[in-house]
């Protein structure tokens, strides 16, 4: 078995490189031997908008961090305590690292596991302050607590035929689905999704799967809006001076929606021709409160951080935003925040993919590239292209 490994490494603001990295060991980040893990040969691993926050220098991520928390792979080695997986199994890896044993995990809150990160609740692969677990934008990766964490695909050949869709199960599809569910999307509801990036489009596709009557996607990026429109969603162009509430009224005949989802997060930009040129981190949250009906729900899968070194003001550097919470209180809104507990949804979404109930790869415009093309993929994604870049380290994804 090879002991070679290469991965995508954050090397400074705006820059990543593909470097030789250590081959995975059956050890946790503190060097303790584990027997509950597996080593995967990575079949596909995706570039995520959350990775871009670190690469832009908007977090305290250290240089040298191996990136990547969206992983699909083949089990090639397993510890003695792994009972339910076999060598050769093809599996999806939830981005949450979870022990399966603590109170949070037992209550399906795997995004805030209590045992995989000594500094705070919740762990993730290749992410700042999330426990030190090595990222999976690499040729080989370690997954701990494998029996609990991994979703095995029941038919390998069928899964490989659908791998462009199934690769989205590690994060963006469950995250979008969680946003839609926590926003109260149900048959016949009207839905507004802030953000036409991959998570926003995954939320829109999820809302459609859940039976929404109409799904409106808003953004300031014309290319992403054009792609969203081509996928059958209504759009709101936030680079225009026409207020969002007026655009919604023009579409629906009333200025409010039943459900809203924030798929943008803390690097939000203002609305209108002038506003869209600058960052305004509370814009999306305030806009959603304005356009969501009384007693409506707002799902917030978009990332917000406790520290943002590149923020526009001192308060935002500490995660403090000028949110009109009084408006939300007056309208009896329900807000749901936090990391998505991927395991709560990934099995049912796998079946939706396998049985052609959702075409997520088409919706988010998956583009498969080689591992060595990762720096170019990061650059294009940061420039706002309407694509979801999927890395193929071993050339295994069918043409």
UniProtKB/TrEMBL annotation:
The keyword Oxidoreductase applies. Its cofactor is Zn(2+). The keyword Hydrolase does not apply. One of its GO terms (molecular function) is oxidoreductase activity. Residues 36-147 form the Alcohol dehydrogenase-like N-terminal domain. Keywords: Metal-binding, NAD, Oxidoreductase, Zinc. Residues 183-230 form the Alanine dehydrogenase/pyridine nucleotide transhydrogenase NAD(H)-binding domain. CDD domains: PFDH_like (cd08282). Belongs to the zinc-containing alcohol dehydrogenase family. PANTHER family: GLUTATHIONE-INDEPENDENT FORMALDEHYDE DEHYDROGENASE, ZINC-TYPE ALCOHOL DEHYDROGENASE-LIKE. This is Alcohol dehydrogenase GroES domain protein.
